[in-house]
Amino acid sequence: MLLLLLSFSAHGWDQRSNLPLEACQDELSWGIPSSEKANVTDRCLEGFALQHDNDAKIASWVAYTLSPEEALGCFPRTNAFVGDASIPKGQRAEPSDYAKSGYDQGHLAPDGDMSWNQQVEYESFLLSNMSPQVPNVNRGAWKYIETTVRAWTWEKKHSYQVYAGNIYSLGTSKTIGNNKVVVPDRIYKIAVDLTTNEVFAFILPNAGKLESIPLKYAVSVAEIEAQTGVTFPLPPGADKKAVRVEIPPSNMGGLTSAKRAACKK
Question: Which fold is adopted by the domain 6-263?
Fold first, then answer.
């Protein structure tokens, strides 16, 4: 993807100017997800694309591809949380909205998948890539599924197309902060093996303490589309109504060892 020029500065690192989603072809294997939401900001960044719901102040979807090389990225986590300056004030989340809310600033495109480039790692902390997530979910089952997909990518040496986002209802879902950032009722992830075209889809409740068992949360892509109003492009012939009855194991220990070895070089 074409690198963008730095445009404006915020909170210690430079945010880059936006590009249209059409420039994010590397992150959108079969095209751009579509939705009927009207008040949105489309974002094309070097590592991921997203559609931000300016009424909810969170993303309806985030999309990116993850390669085996990117799964072993070496840039350390920075926690460089910042409001997304490409979205007007009052239509975006700010760090102050999360302060003392009891919710984590939960990634959709995870930092661990974006640590292959320093600027990309910073950009993963834009609040347009976050939603208010229950700590036990964000640091538990959600993180487990994120790491599972990353481990598959490394172990199989296959790239994956990933979609992730929030399920919520304006006017009924809880909000936090002065900007009334919507707390999603559920969060979802879709991962498609770009070599085999296998499709994995999950919905997790944004509540309580969930078990780290991906199969427990397996759903069809059609179910995610029905709950979000977003249509997700998939490879030709993919069955959107299929639900996985088996989830391949993931070698997380092997991923950790491989990452340590790669990052010592």
Answer: Extracellular Endonuclease; Chain A (3.40.570)
